[in-house]
Each structure stands twice: as structure tokens, then as C-alpha cells.
Amino acid sequence: MSFQQALSGLNAASKNLDVIGNNVANANTVGFKASRAEFADVYASTVMGTFSNNIGIGTKLNAVSQIFTQGAISVTSNPFDVAISGEGFFRMDNNGSIVYSRNGQFHLDANGYLVNANGLRLTGYAADENGNINAAAPQPLRLTVSSIEARGTTEVVQGAVLDSRSPVIDRATTPFDPNDSTTYTHATSIAIYDSLGNTHTLSTFYVKRGPGEWDVYTALNGTTTPDPDDPSLPSVHTLFFDAAGKIDLDKTDSRGVFNVRVDGATLGTGATDLEFEYNLVATSQTGQAFSNELQRQNGYTSGRLTSFTIDENGVLKANYSNQQSRAQGQIVLVSFVNPQGLVPAGGNNFLETMLSGTPRLGVPGSSNFGTVVSGALEDANVDLTAELVNMITAQRVYQANAQSIKTQDSVMQTLVNMR
Predict the structure, then answer these.
(1) Do 252 and 385 have their domain in common?
(2) Strands 186-193 and 155-163, sheet pairing
(3) CB neighbours of 267 closer than 8 A, spacing ≥ 6?
(4) Quick one: 216 and 103 in the same domain?
(5) Domain residues for 60?
(6) 205 and 256, same domain (yes or no)
(7) What is the pLDDT of residues 45-84, one digit of tens each?
(8) What is the pLDDT of residue 1?
(9) Which of 126, 190, 255, 313, CA to CA, is 20 to 30 A from 376?
(10) E strands along 263-304, which residues?
(11) Residue 146's pLDDT band (boundaries 50, 70, 90)?
């Protein structure tokens, strides 16, 4: 029986060395998860069952389990490299079949798909032409490298702080003139865009007409915008403020939001009519110097693609030369109730099984899912120091079992030599 025990020990130590050797060999494999050999003792079964004085007949390899601990994250120079920090697997499309991986070494193929070294496509949620993510069903992520078209301004928001100490300018004696600074109290400007992406300067003039009463005039490229009802007159809107300096929407023209329209023919660019909503609700009046606290508009000129970025929530954004960015998709992650039940499929991929449970989809940063780090990769979680110590231990176990065979052989030789 000692021969059988020692032989099983030799086999077990050999298997253990195989597992350790595989871990060491993959110490530089991105996203690799180390394995460990798990053993069980073996007892001979009898008709009468087992008793407390039974002697085992050796050991056997019970399982080789993956260790899904977090690997260190290393920074790379590839913006498409992605590391998962926390729980989750990448969902990869292998010609219609789905596999899972922690290897985030991705690049664009000739068709614009994000793929790994084996050509498997990374899946996620697609985005529409306006950058809105459609979280209906995951599909292979495809990036477009086309330029972004110009967008004409449709909204301008202005939030100035007007100086209540400024002197009143009488309408009758001092009519407004954009070229005469004595006819207005404050002025500011912002760049806006027509339908072709051409830049125009929108100037806003504030004229104090009385306590808590201000007229607002606008001019485009130095020319006062006309009144929609009488183009011979400049367009003017009156703002009223309460004792606290807040805008009084009940008295203020159009409740602080009015439309500005400029005939396209006067733009001189071939663009369509420029019409936008001008929001002055955030304007206030205080006893301090004039300041422009809030100013924004939603138009932009055309732009060419300059780069791609991936944020911690897995949103892939295309960045353009006009300082705009637009989402082109979002990476999805997958988690399992029992990751130990996954089956290695080679190429740093895993397959789901009945033991792993069904995959649960989610986006990076959501409940129970880790975040992603772009321009970085997850190293193998192999501890080389520990593996080398385990290798020495396994070697000694192998030698000890070999010694058991040698000792048993010596005992048998003694018996054979007895006369």
C-alpha cells in the first residue's frame, strides 16, 4: 500500500508543480488570474465502511481553482487600453458567442471596432448621433472617425450682476447708440455660431432707466438687432428687479426669456436665419461693480476628430478640434455569483457554466461593479515570491514521496533476502 500512497503523492506534487509553473509562466500576462491546486485524501471503501483506525491510500487532485483577486494597475500609452478596478469582466463577442475576460488590451480594427489581440470585439451600449447612450442591449462597440458638423446657436444664457448705483440714463434725452458708450451703462459680448459654424459676436447692452429698471439691447457684429414688429427700431426688452435685487419675472418682458432673430441675408455667410432664445433670468442687481457671472451658448463650429477618451464609467468619447466631445458608446461589465465556476477558455478568456451562474450586466461604477481606468492595464495577480516558495515546497514533497518509495523498496528487499 505504501507504494500506492507514495505514487499518488508523486502525481499530486507533479500536478502542483504544473499549476505553479503555469502561474509563473503567466506572470506577465495582462489580466491573468493565478490558479491553485486543491487536493483531497483518499480512503479505500469496504463493505463494512470506514473505521477510526483506517489508513488512507494517498491523495488526489480535487480541483484547480482560479484566484480572482485584483491585480496591480499599470499605466500605458495606449488610450484604448482599459483596466478594471474592482469587480467585473469585459464582455467579448467571438463571432456571435460570448466570452469574458479581464484583459483590457484593445485597439481599433479596420472597421472601427474595439477588438483584442485575437480579434474578439468588446461589447457595450451604443450611442446615437447626438451622443445619447442606448442601454437596450449590448453590442460590439464601433467608433466613427468622421468630423463633427457645425451647430448653429439656439440658446444663449446670460447672468450679469448690474450695479444699482449707476446713474439713470433718460430715454428721451439720450437714445441708445451701440457706438456711444455714454448711452448705455454696461456691456458684454459672447461668440455665437450660425448654421455653417461661422462665428459672430453677440453684444448685450444694459441701460439703467430707473431704480430697479433696465433696458436690454442686443447687437450682432456691431449692428443692433431689429425689433421684430418694426425693423426700423432696435429690439429692446425691459428688466425689473425687486428690493432684494432679484429679477421680477411678473413685470419683466417675456419673463426674462426672449427670442432674437437675424435675417440670414444680413449675415453674409450663406447661412440660414439665425434665431435663438436669449435667457436673462439669472441677471441680478446689487450695490457692487458690474460683473458677468454666467455666460454660455450651445452652438459650435465644425471640428475634426483629435482623440478618443474613456472615462471611469466606461463612456467612450470622441474629442474634436472645436472643443466639443461626443459619446460614442459605453463599455458594459459582467459579474457572476460564483466566478470560481467559470471555465478558462484560453486567450485570457472565460466561459460561463451552470456553476458560475448567469451573467449580470452593468456599467462601470454602478452597484457592485468596479470602475475602469483608460490608458492602463491590470497586471497578473501572480505573487512571484509566493509562487517560488510554493515551488520549493512542492519539490520537497515530491522528493519525500520518492523517498517513501525508496524506503518501501528497501523493506521489500529485506524480506526477499530472508532465508
Answers:
(1) no
(2) unpaired
(3) 194, 198, 200, 274
(4) no
(5) 2-69+380-417
(6) yes
(7) 655 555 556 777 788 888 888 899 999 999 998 999 999 9
(8) 54
(9) 126
(10) 274-279, 284-286, 291-297
(11) confident
